[in-house]
Amino acid sequence: VINPLLAEGQVHGGVAQGIAQALYEVVRYTPDGGQPVTSTLLDYLVPTAPDLPEYTAGRITTLCPNNPLGAKGIGESGAVGAPAAVVNAVVDALAPYGVEHVDMPVTPEKIWRILKEHR
Amino acid sequence: MSDTTTSRYVSIRMTINGEPSAATVDARTLLVHHLRENQRLTGTHIGCDTSNCGACTVLLDGRSIKSCTVLAVQADGGEVTTIEGLSGPYDGFTAVQEGFRRCHGLQCGYCTPGMVMAATSLLADNPDPSEMEIRLGIEGNMCRCTGYQMIVDSVRWAAEHPQPSDDVTE
Q1: pTM (2 decimals)?
Q2: Cα distances (angstroms) measured from residue B115 to each of A12, A51, A109, B55, B146
Q3: Pick from A6, A8, A41: CB nearest B52
Q4: What ipTM score was computed for the predicted complex, to two decimals?
């Protein structure tokens, strides 16, 4: 790892985006005309500092086999794992209700509807 | 120019980064546009224009404000500090700026001027904030890159090192 501090920063940012994708962020269009109704940051919830946890980042370093240097990018790779981790945790918590899948973002309203349906 | 047109313009005086400043502005001019376009202080950024993102945060009479939500005429008689007006004991940088440098508190840098101003205001109110107090203090400022932890670390570093000391090394 060329710059461990920058690499960790990229992972933090990626995890944050992944958590946000799992819980908050969605772009909606009207079903008939395809008009975007998510048009400002009032409609699109980007998390701020109190919405996100503190992270502990670990690292397994492997060389890339496809180039002579073995180098690869880090760019926000945390964004790949975080949505699955968060959504799977929600699905696991809802397993007693027979839930096997919840579409992202997992909003409070969706959880409320699932619990209401399965009561 | 007709009277109805000229009456929309207002003469204002304020102190910007310690310097007296007089201007005649369209009454509807936002403070952020006055700073960026009339004063050419482009360190203050515009992220959303809807007071959500905090990129335009400056200090007005020592308190942090979102300058896209304040009219220039509302700052008449006031004292405005922008990111360009900060200076401190760390080679000219304040402890907050130095904290951001050391702790990797920025990636793309777009939110950084606003974050630094919000953190400066926070530490003026609360010189020894907890992690959650820092998170709540910068709640009005969005960052897409960092996930906030290193920004929180930066502000905490600034709280712990208001002045350079011998035990602070590169």
Answers
A1: 0.91
A2: 17, 16, 32, 7, 12
A3: A41
A4: 0.89
